[in-house]
Amino acid sequence: MNTSDYVKIPKSFYEREDVVKIARELLGKYLFTSIDGILTGGKIVETEAYNGRTDKASHAYKKRTNRTEVMYQNGGIAYVYLCYGIHHLFNIVTNRSGLADAVLVRAVEPIFGIDRMVERYGGVRTKVSNGPGKLSKALGINTGLNGTDLSGDKIFIATHIKEKSPKIAVDTRIGVDYAEEDALLPWRFYVEENGWVSKQRTPVK
DNA sequence: TCTAAGATGGGT
DNA sequence: CCCATCTTAGAA
């Protein structure tokens, strides 16, 4: 890996207002973790946007509780929570403090430290990061990293200076049927024809 | 204190 | 399709 080809995204990227736009722009960027001295990373190929004020699917919708407190902080930090008692799901808080927008990273394509990612997964050489719970496990992300500042060196996102943004497909979000009409919002984005996307469905118009 | 539900994943 | 698994939130 030639580190000079990767440039860390500035905090101002996350502090912008439009969480849907940010979710789309995160595709093709690289998510790195440096945990216990192990550097791992992959290309983000699937994301979902969650609006804290208008979106019934958001954990923060009409709820400011212990769990959602980090979502209400200023953009550019990690929101990690435990799902179904087992899976650690990694989100990126966006927008300004008090607004609680976030982007869920649902899949990455392993690029750096692939062997270490497989090790963390239990040595099973299979798809270790094509789903939100799986990528967290492979990258070593857990709830202990909730609130981590993405401008630091533990978890960060970078662009590759020579790569252009990929071709993007749009869909409704996965697993948010409880959100009634908001479940229909086209707020899931993924890289077209990438084998690491978590779930392929027939595209919505 | 009690209970229901959940932004999943893996197996059948 | 089925269900393990356990924290969290909200009710009582």
The tally of strands reads 9
Helix content: 10-25%
CATH architecture descriptor: Roll
CATH superfamily: Methylpurine-DNA glycosylase (MPG)
- Tell me about the biggest sheet? 9 strands, antiparallel
What sort of overall outline do the alpha carbons produce when their principal axes are compared?
A: globular
Rounded to an integer in angstroms, the radius of gyration calculated over CA atoms is 16 Å
Distance between the termini: 39 Å
Q: Roughly what is the average pLDDT, rounded to an integer?
A: 95
Low-confidence parts: none
**Broad structural category:** alpha+beta
When the domains are counted, the total is 1
**Percentage beta strand:** 25-35%
Q: What fold name goes in the CATH topology slot?
A: 3-methyladenine DNA Glycosylase, Chain A
Task: Put the structure in a nutshell.
With 205 residues, the protein is of the alpha+beta class. 13% of the residues lie in helices and 30% in strands.
Describe how the helices and strands are arranged.
Layout: E1 6-8, H1 11-14, H2 19-25, E2 30-35, E3 38-50, E4 78-83, E5 87-94, E6 101-112, H3 114-120, H4 132-139, E7 155-160, E8 168-171, E9 188-191
Antiparallel strand pairs: 1-7, 2-3, 2-7, 3-6, 3-9, 4-5, 5-6, 8-9
The protein binds a DNA duplex (12 and 12 nucleotides) through residues 48, 50, 57-59, 63, 65-67, 81-87, 89, 91, 104, 106, 131-134, 173-176, 178-179, 198.
